[in-house]
## 1
Amino acid sequence: MAQTDQGATQVQVEVTDCRPEDAHRVFHALNALFTSDRATDDAPQASAGAGTTVWLATVEVSQAPAQAAPRRLTAPVTATVQGGYWAVDRLRAGLAQVFTVRDVGSASGDQEQEVQLRLESRPTAS
């Protein structure tokens, strides 16, 4: 399924309310799955001050997600993703290889949607 609209294969990803190392694991997973504007070694840093820290990346999902191994998080991570319906679905499917993904909210428009995802470590076999 080819997407021809400008930007239709890009998804904006915001990661908030988590430890920097968990944000890094999410961005590292996205880089393993797709192409991102965030370098693999670009480790998120905690910000000084009382405000909420938001880390951002733009992910190109025109290619099917690569195979990636599950990654462990120290706590659940909230990721807000925004893009075309097809692109957001492809990103969500890729993340589902690596984490347990739950939709916790969304807002829809004609061409794009914004979805809030809760990412958790995948359960391990006993």
Note: The chain has one domain: 10-41+53-121.
## 2
Amino acid sequence: MSIRTAEQLSDILATDLAWRKKELSEVKSLIELKNVSPQRHNALIRSGVCILYAHWEGFVKLAANSYLEYVAMQKLCYDQLASNFLALAMKEKLKETKETNKVSLYIPVCDFFLSQLNTRCSLPKKAISTASNLSSEILKEISHILGLDFSLYSTKSKLIDEKLLEARNKIAHGNDLIIDREEYIELHTEVIAMLDIFRNQIENAAVNKDFMLNK
């Protein structure tokens, strides 16, 4: 189903986030159990970190691309797009001119900016990538592409890069990593909060038409 309205976008985000939160809650309840062996407790936490990261990356990627699809379905012209979405639309057109000294390759691009900005825009589908490593820098880039305020995550960079991404990578690569119950619960709380923030940002951007140049 194409995402044509802000309500449809909100429903998709709500449904996706609901099952993720439910699974994370189940994992957290297991980790909070007291009557388990240290070995099982450690295994649960290590598994929990990987699942936390998976849902963090998975939701950001789905939400970002869902918002991009919603913007694409608004059938706007290029000159109606906010600069961040115009830049995304122009990326494909500029690919051929990359790393070349042929000035002639720039002529169609110049012609486009001179005479075709009032035509229907074409945005690439599923263009938002997390590169399977959603670091704070990649999150910043995604935020800029979508026109979202990254400052809401600026104090979370160390948590995202070290406590979440780096910890997940170490565990996924078979390295030993000990995380205690309190550290995991704190990480769980922070990730849930960031997921809610990202969802709210996208929903607000859609409702407020932040994707438009003159809203």
Note: Residues 38-72 form the longest helix (35 residues).
## 3
Amino acid sequence: MSQDQIREIVFDTETTGLNPQDGDRIIEIGAVELLNHIPTGRTFRTLINPRRAVSADTVRITGITDDNLKDAPFFEDSDVVDAFLEFLGDSILIAHNAGFDRAFLNMELDRCGRAPVPEDRWIDTAAMARRKFPGAPASLDALCKRFDISLESRTFHGALLDSQLLASVYLELMGGRARAFAFETVSEVEIVGEVRAARNRPQPLDPQVTEFERAAHGAFVEKLGENALWNRYA
């Protein structure tokens, strides 16, 4: 990857409950790679055996049950922690309510003797949305509706699907589809072409100035004489 390219990872977790300090664990990780704010198609997703029961609320929200997780790898297994850290690299992590995901991820990393991902490597899209739309709902669902991002496939919350939705929301928060029409992306040829099209009509418009207006303008110009601006700077 060249030095002028920006690589970011949009990241989401599903967990057994809401508090890692109470022993809750990650049960699913999903992540999407962005390069220069555009999804590359590279993703990461895995279920994780949390070594504890999943709460009823989590089952209701995610559809993930204890049976779904009994044969899943543990977080400390190489195909989870090593594979995820390799996918992450040194990129920025983008998450919705990032403090929640950061607390769980760093708790899991600490459990297996890995360094935490520092706070300055995280972007919180919920905080971005609250700054951009003060007083408006800032949930992922609300932002998808605001930006007309389809939620048809979202029967349950899932880490990879939510990461993909969040990548679309993040793009909108960064400037949205209008970014494709930024001035720096428009070539000089296109701009010249637009100007030429405006100056060269196939059929000129009929004059809109009346004879009375033409005569009044001529009389006004004649009164200016040598004081006219075009005479002073000719």
Note: The first strand starts at residue 7 and ends at 15.
## 4
Amino acid sequence: MPPSRRTLTILAITGAVAVAAVVATVVLLSGQAADAPAPGTKIVASEFSKATDAAARAADGSPEHAAAAYLSAQPTAVWLTPEGDPADVVGERIANLAAEARSQSARVAVVVYGLPERDCGGHSAGGLDADAYLDWTRAIGDALREAADTAPIVILEPDSLALAPECGNVDERVDQLSAAVGALASDSTWIYVDGGHSNWLPPTEMAGLIDQVDRASRTDGGRSIRGFVTNVSNYEATGDETAYAHDVAGHLDGLHAIIDTGRNGAGSTGDWCNPPGRLVGEAGGTVGDDVVDTNLWIKPPGESDGTCNGGPAAGHWWPAAAVELTRDVTAD
């Protein structure tokens, strides 16, 4: 018996939906995997975080538990370091992160932090030699391409450019960063290089450094970076950072910015290393305009800036800081 008109219509609709799904998948995996980060962007809140571990260890009902539990639920970028995620395991780490992102209908956001002479001997000193760094970033890039459907956001080496004049290695940094961009870049990955913050380098100087990496990393297909990131691990007010991003971008041709608002809810005292009295800032994906793509939490609140103002080593969980940062949002 031939199919009825109604059956044919249903089959046509079903086929159209299937074709649309295939087309959507093709578009997702060729060309930019999704729109650029913007207000409304949601990044993954990974359960494999120091905040999650701290919540599991803290006593139920304690301020330390409330703070860690709150912070563990907040979408926050995941930091990749060669010390914690060497080249032979970083791919698996990203694959697991991508699986979490899919389950949350979120995007992967990672911080790549392993540059040679990282932090110029400061609290976060370390990093790889040049050859090992290139191998490591290639492993990250390969894994991110496998996770193309999560439209990965990459924050590349915070502080690296803004510190370079002080470290005296601008040319070397530009070469290293542009090579890293080449290793990480794909049609589905959105890369933001270091843009310092509003209380550091003048906009013209910061823009000049960014421009060098931008130009050195371009390919026949055009730009490989989306823009720059400001206020990473810092406390400057969002309004100041927005104005600064506009000033920096004004010296560049079409580059955009992301602002770290994880710990800037009380603004800055001018001290970047574990200043007391700070608060978490605006939730990620709530800020944006024609220059600032959006804001994200990049430095995980609750992790120390270093052994200063009573803090533990850089990156270690600090329960007292977590409690202080969340005092307004965890209060009964």
Note: The chain has two domains: 1-30, 36-325.
